[in-house]
What does this fold into?
Amino acid sequence: MPAETKHGHILLYHRVGDTSQDPWGLTVHPRRFRNQLEFLRAARYPTSLSAMIDVQGTTLPSASEVVVTIDDGYAETTSTVVPLLEAFDVSATLYIPSGAVGQTGEYWWDALEGLILGPGRLPPSISVSVRDRRYLWRLDGWEQWPPSDRFRFAGWRAWVGTPPTPRHQLFTDLWHLCLPLVDTEIWSVIEQLSVVADSQPAPRQDRRVVTDQELRSLAKHPLISIGAHTRTHAQLSSRTPSQQEVEIEGGRRDLQAVIGESPKHLAYPFGKRGDYGPAAAELACLSGFSSAVTNIPGTVTGATDRYHLPRIFVQDWDAAQLGAQVPGRA
Ligand SMILES: [Zn+2]
It folds into this structure.
């Protein structure tokens, strides 16, 4: 079989847990994750990213190779994910934004979700300034957010259809406004929202990111490899080339300082075509990374550019649904 007709898949996970609100579909239930790993072990060839990349185009054995990758370094990786990887002898690459390691608060997208789609009451109108521009939203009767409403919309996904309530519209608008901003600007938005909501929700335990010590233990695990995910989880396309270098090379060096070796693989934050550009791929290569993964779906073949590797965004699927997304040998 010619090398370019052989192909494998790289799977993209974020959280493995039990959550009642998941606007970006980032969470796979532990029971489903177990079923997915069981399926991969029985019906596909789970391998490591280094093994897939190093043999790319030469000895990729079949159309059934799969690689598990998990982004953002949520601490539940240690408690929930690793025991399941061990149970099925499946390896994984964890992509970690170095600046988030040991942080006491939540990621900005989680904090935004907690404030807007969480249980708190919001005022009838909400005004937020972003880069000297003022934005205004009206909640039109959705100031209160009783459990019955929150439960009713628990399955809402931010990329599907139009937002069903003004709260969902507010969440979607602010998420997109925050995406290109730098950290200090994003946290200014969240702070403004906290003030108008008169709410400073405590960081949730299930949104916690690994500590230095947990990261060091994970890096020593034989099934785990640590990959880089920039310093601040920046949308690289919104940054100048020198800022991108700080994010990519800085993230690499930060992780090296914690785990004692340089990460070999990089994941572009957010990972869609518009979220990173050619400069990011060049910088990844210059920083010595062997590969960089995107969030663009597709298969990996011998012809795939290793700095634009596609990934399948795994959702809370059963084994059959996962199997349909990662077909085996034809
Ligand atoms: Zn990420």
In short: The chain is about 35% helix and 15% strand.
